[in-house]
Design goal:
989 residues; mainly alpha; six-stranded parallel β-sheet; four-stranded parallel β-sheet; 12 strands; 58% helix; 6% strand; elongated
Length: 989
């Protein structure tokens, strides 16, 4: 590939009439044309050395372009294929524009292709010589044009004026590189949009994946072409396309209203209490009265926003140009589309070298291969540029070598990021982001953990300081916390994981936040931080609005509150109060989650109104929290309110409205109102069938829920009919390797078991177990459910009267292993763990009774029941109040006492088996807590069991570790009861 240049060395400050840009394949044509131009007395710069792919742009080329009055592009089929030719052409176009507001200094000589194939329409502004025109005639035309130019060169072009930014200045990023071609494509698209066929102002969509640089590109366009929009640049960002729930058009409209209100208040167009409609009207009036063009940036617009809503989001007057960044094209084909892909090779190499220049030879080759491995993904390359500058990385070659054998964590995280990463380079990009996160100190990780809970909108250090003070501020003064946040943010910014906005605030890219959330395994710290964020944001909404500082605090909180609300809607009930059930040990308040959601809801009502989409989201989360605390009557009432509010706002058949109605059915299951749940799920199923079709995955979920309700009500023949249809339709729509197909297999087993077909049930459960094991691995709750169900079905024929045999021993060992895994994975208080405890006791009692003296078996143990696994996104049950499942706990406690007594009376000489029976008694006793000192007794029993298992098996044996885990849990319960007396019997944590 060749670039424009001149024979002989270029002297500093030398001036040329023409910079001749050409592809190296066209060198003969370039030499002839240079000779013709020089015959007219023009000085011409032409590179004669040539440039190989991946070479840096030499200083001589840059200096020559700066010293040239014009650029002539020999535009052949090879020209647009050369990234260096494109760089020269678009750099010259930009300089020409800033010299005079025109692009006449850049001319194209087209050969071997039609004019329509010329990339930039700017090159077509002049009347181009015919493709077949003789070179001599073309040189005459070029001479006349050059002769009419002033003597300024491209290097004399002034910097563009600084645009007026609203609501806050955008200072750009030190990691932004290149994109000149895309920047001119945007300008061409705006100029080419004459509004024909649309009553909207001009609209351009920048479409690309996460981290590809769409936001920085949009801001750079506002910066580079500031003269095109003297009325200012209005940035309405952080709309949240990274969130699944962000597709809600009303949520997006509410976020845009928040930004417009902030702009109107900054311009003092409205008072501090003016509603969004008044702010929008005032801003529209001002823009119309000003009468100057302006740029309107909608950043991170989610897919799924329909045309009607989109029309309310664009620039409010005819003089506005709307530039949209999104991961999907415009609704209904609105606007021109520009695809933003990987960064060009020269700019990628420059970005990777921004902190460390590679030495010639192997290091430069490693830099090139590193750019390729990262798919020239700008965000990943920005992080990589910071990493290669660290001594421990080993430079470009060291970082590249680390991609060769990615760790399981990298592979898992990349898989979970899924569509957020380019398919071919996702693992390398993920590995780079994770390596950057790993380089954070504990202080930096804490700050990034807090930031990852928020929206990808700017946040001030004060907001993070408030959250940190709420979560980890005990014993530290505010100045210490402020300094800790400052250091943590500076560290994240140095690693390109956070971006300062120039006003003292920062933001974190959605892809970085999501990666950090997946990589952050400190569930306790994360849950504590989340609750602190909810409390701080709620207090900001409820706080006084008087004064500029107070208004800033409120408006800063709004985008983050709306993000928290979407996150609440996406969390299943189990996670609202922490899946592992450690609420009291973390916060000291069994109602912490409930109290925080109530506080957040009150704040949303005060700041946004009861009918706002965010308020309704939080109301749904509050309802789920009541259900998790066992208050199902309150939960169903609030869920009905949320459903009715969404129905009024979105319509009764909107997907979110139907999801809210589905949640009502879940709570009816929790209340034991199975017929009511059946009716609700049936209503959802019929509505989804009409809206989507009977084969749609959402419709299949509704059918699965209805089958659960029928099964729990005891209508097993009906459940069998529904589940048979569900199994066939799931296989047809989703395939036989999908998680919902595994759920359908498990449902078939549950129904077969209820109908007395135990062998058939065991086969269904075995199929479900094998599929879930392949999908999730052994250590997953759903896999353990299917494994336990297989054990239940296999043990169904054991009535306790037969003699001891190997099958019963294997059965008991199987339940014991499931119990151990659940205790580690889900915690002692998880409903599934408690069910497994009960099954362990039933199996143990059967085996021990068979071993005892004839005639002393006592009453037969209760029958085992398989785990009724609900579909994805549905969690009925969890943390419950005392009265809600006390009968079940009493039965489990009595089973444990009976098993212990039988063990003591038997001739059993298996010490480990006896100790495990003792451990289960401690667990069942701790779950009871009906009498003073009951948990103290459980603690003593657990301590004795732990010591016994350590003596028999050793400290590192899995069963000993299980006993240690249970002991610590009971110890936390006892300590909490001392610190917060009177609360232990109303909440199982």
């Amino acid at each position: 590939m060749g670039s424009a240049g001149a024979e002989g060395p270029a002297r500093s400050g030398h001036r040329y009439d023409v910079f001749l840009s050409y592809a190296w394949e066209d060198i003969d044509l370039a030499v002839r044309f240079q000779e013709l131009l020089e015959a007219h007395g023009l000085s011409v710069f032409r590179d004669v050395t040539g440039m190989r792919d991946y070479d840096d742009i030499p200083t001589v080329i840059r200096a020559a372009l700066d010293g040239s009055r014009t650029l002539v592009a020999l535009y052949t089929p090879s020209f647009p294929e050369s990234q260096y030719c494109r760089w020269e052409m678009y750099t010259a176009l930009t300089r020409s524009y800033h010299l005079s507001g025109q692009t006449r200094r850049v001319m194209a000589v087209v050969r071997g292709m039609s004019f329509s194939q010329v990339l930039s329409s700017r090159l077509k502004c002049l009347r181009l010589p015919a493709v077949t025109a003789a070179l001599a005639d073309v040189s005459d035309s070029v001479h006349r044009l050059v002769d009419g130019m002033d003597h300024r060169t491209f290097g004399d072009a002034p910097a563009p004026p600084v645009p007026s930014w609203y609501p806050e200045p955008a200072v750009g990023s030190r990691h932004f590189r290149g994109r000149l071609q895309e920047l001119w494509q945007i300008r061409d698209a705006f100029d080419g949009d004459d509004g024909a066929g649309s009553d909207l102002p001009p609209v351009v969509f920048l479409v690309g994946g996460g981290g590809i640089g769409k936001t920085m590109l949009a801001e750079q366009y506002g910066r580079l072409f500031a003269e095109d929009h003297p009325g200012g640049v209005f940035v309405l960002g952080g709309l949240g396309s990274h969130l699944d729930g962000s597709r809600d058009p009303l949520r997006v409209a509410a976020l845009v209203d928040d930004r417009i209100t902030a702009i109107a208040r900054r311009l003092e167009l409205v008072g501090p209490d003016a509603p969004a409609a008044a702010a929008r009207a005032a801003l529209s009036t001002r823009l119309a009265a000003t009468g100057t063009p302006y740029l309107w940036i909608l950043d991170d617009l989610p897919a799924g926003v329909d045309t009607a809503v989109f029309r309310t989001l664009v620039a409010p007057t005819a003089l506005g140009r709307t530039l949209v960044t999104s991961r999907a094209p415009g609704p209904g084909g609105q606007g021109a589309r520009i695809d933003v892909g990987e960064l060009g090779e020269p700019d990628s190499l420059a970005l990777l070298s921004s902190r460390l220049s590679p030495s010639p030879g192997a290091e430069r080759q490693a830099r090139r291969r590193l750019a390729q491995a990262l798919g020239r993904h700008p965000l990943a390359m920005a992080v990589a540029a910071e990493l290669v500058a660290l001594p421990e990385t080993g430079g470009f070659a060291g970082l590249l070598a680390s991609f060769a054998e990615p760790s399981p964590d990298v592979l898992e995280t990349a898989e979970r990021l899924g569509v957020h990463l380019p398919t071919a380079h996702g693992v390398s990009i993920c590995a780079t982001l994770l390596r950057g996160i790993d380089r954070l100190t504990p202080e930096g990780l804490t700050v990034m953990r807090l930031a990852s809970l928020l929206a990808p909108a700017p946040f001030s250090p004060d907001l993070l300081t408030d959250i940190l003070a709420e979560s980890d501020g005990e014993g530290r003064d505010r100045q210490q916390l402020r300094e800790s946040v400052r250091r943590g943010l500076a560290e994240a910014e140095r690693l390109a994981l956070a971006r300062p906005d120039g006003t003292g605030s920062s933001s974190v890219h959605a892809l970085v936040s999501r990666t950090l959330r997946l990589a952050d395994h400190d569930d306790t710290a994360r849950e504590r931080a989340r609750r602190a964020a909810v409390r701080v944001l709620a207090e900001r909404l409820e706080g006084p609005a008087a004064g500029a500082a107070a208004r800033f605090r409120t408006f800063e909180a709004l985008p983050h509150v709306r993000t928290v609300a979407v996150a609440l809607a996406e969390r299943d009930d189990q996670h609202l109060l922490n899946e592992a059930g450690r609420v009291r040990s973390e916060s000291g308040d069994p109602g912490t989650g409930l109290g925080l959601l109530r506080l957040l809801h009150d704040g949303c009502v005060a700041a946004l109104g009861p009918s706002d989409i965010t308020t309704l989201r939080v109301l749904a989360g509050l309802a789920a929290a009541h259900g998790m605390c066992g208050d199902h009557d309150t939960a169903v009432r609030l869920k009905h309110q949320a459903y009715e509010g969404l129905a009024a706002l979105l319509g009764p058949h909107h997907p979110d409205t139907l999801t809210a109605l589905n949640n009502v059915g879940v709570t009816e299951l929790d209340r034991g109102e199975y017929r009511m749940a059946w009716r609700v799920f049936g209503q959802v199923y019929r509505a989804r069938s009409r809206r989507n079709s009977a084969q749609h995955p959402d419709t299949l979920l509704a059918l699965a829920n209805a089958s659960v309700a029928a099964s729990l009500e005891g209508r097993h023949a009906l459940a069998l009919r529904l589940r048979t249809s569900l199994l066939a339709r799931t296989a047809r729509v989703l395939g036989t390797r999908h998680p919902q197909y595994a759920d359908a297999l498990n449902g078939m087993g549950t129904t077969a078991y209820a109908l007395g077909h135990r062998a058939e049930a065991a086969d269904w459960f075995d199929r479900a177990y094998r599929l879930r094991r392949d999908l999730y691995g052994e250590q997953h709750g759903d896999t353990l459910d299917a494994l336990e169900n297989r054990l239940v079905a296999a043990s169904a024929d054991h009535d306790g009267t037969a003699g001891p045999d190997r099958e019963e021993e294997e059965e008991e060992e199987g339940f014991r292993e499931v119990y151990r895994c659940r205790l580690d994975l889900q915690g002692p208080s998880h409903p599934a763990t408690v069910t497994t405890l009960r099954h362990c006791l039933v199996a143990c009692r059967r085996g021990t009774a068979a071993d005892g003296p004839a005639g002393d078996e006592g009453p037969l143990p209760p029958r085992m029941e398989p785990v009724q696994t609900l579909p994805h996104g549905v969690t009925s049950g969890g943390v419950r109040l005392e009265a809600d499942d006390m009968d079940r706990r009493i039965e489990t406690f009595e089973l444990a006492c009976s098993a212990q007594e039988l063990m003591a009376d038997s001739d059993e000489d298996d010490e480990v088996r006896a100790l495990m029976t003792q451990l289960w008694l401690a667990h069942a006793t701790a779950l009871m807590d009906q009498m003073d000192g009951q948990r103290d007794v459980a603690l003593a029993v657990a301590e004795d069991t732990e010591a016994g298992l350590a003596r028999e098996l050793g400290r590192d044996h899995p069963l000993t570790r299980t006993a240690s885990s249970l002991y610590r849990w009971i110890e936390e319960l006892v300590d909490a009861a001392v610190e917060w007396p009177g609360e232990g019997r109303t909440f199982i944590d």
